[in-house]
Specification:
It is built from eight helices and four strands; from the N terminus they run βαβαβααβαααα. By secondary structure, it is of the alpha/beta class. It has two domains: about 120 residues, Resolvase, N-terminal catalytic domain (Rossmann fold, 3-Layer(aba) Sandwich), CATH 3.40.50.1390; about 40 residues. The longest helix has about 40 residues.
């Protein structure tokens, strides 16, 4: 029997040390802890997959909290079933003892843990949907007040048409044209195409 730990933070900027400290305090060796720094929307994570490939029957997987496993409640339940039933690996969720499958438990306790798992997963999913809804409502309210989102529209410099004329007639080189209007080459080309499209439409 081996004990493994799994740590996940949503972005590379987030710090995983708190989770690591708790797992190490539980007696898990650092070389048995797998860390992913990416979203929990699915289980397509390199170190999670690597850890799963090493798990054997009667091993123990320790996580700080259920949301470190993932955030998609249907996939969490499916992964839980695969790990505990198909792979016969125990799971210990440190901040939720009811979900600790390493303990001797009767059918009632197992039923309770399954219900708790589904409830927690549903709450996590519902909260994400509420956050998205609040964001959408905030954006709509801001737009009504005239707040604009996205990149500000870039206005052409006063000398743009003159510089394009000189460039088209090979009076100046491309890099000089871009410098004169303060644009990168890709932006310059794009604005020239936009101007051509306007003329063709008119």
């Amino acid at each position: 029997m081996q004990v493994f730990g799994y740590v996940r933070v949503s972005t590379k900027n987030q710090n995983e040390n708190r989770q690591l400290d708790e797992l190490e305090n539980s007696g898990i060796k650092i070389d048995k802890i797998f860390i992913d720094k990416q979203s929990g929307k699915n289980f397509d994570r390199p170190n999670y997959k690597k850890m799963i490939s090493k798990l054997k029957p009667k091993d123990i997987l320790v996580i700080k909290s259920i949301d470190r496993l993932g955030r998609n409640y249907k996939e969490i339940i499916e992964q839980w079933r695969i790990i505990t039933k198909d792979m016969q690996v125990f799971i210990n969720v440190l901040d939720m003892p009811l979900l600790n499958t390493t303990l001797d438990r009767d059918l009632i306790q197992e039923l309770i843990s399954d219900l708790v798992l589904q409830l927690l997963s549903f709450v996590a999913k519902n909260e994400r949907e509420n956050i998205r809804q609040r964001q959408a409502e905030g954006i709509r309210a801001a737009k009504k007040r005239g707040i604009k989102f996205g990149r500000p529209k870039m206005h052409e410099p006063a000398n743009f048409n003159r510089v394009v004329y000189l460039w088209r007639n090979k009076k100046i080189m491309l890099h000089n044209a871009c410098r004169n209007v303060g644009m990168s080459q890709s932006t310059f080309y794009r604005r020239v195409r936009q101007e051509n499209n306007k003329k063709n439409i008119s």
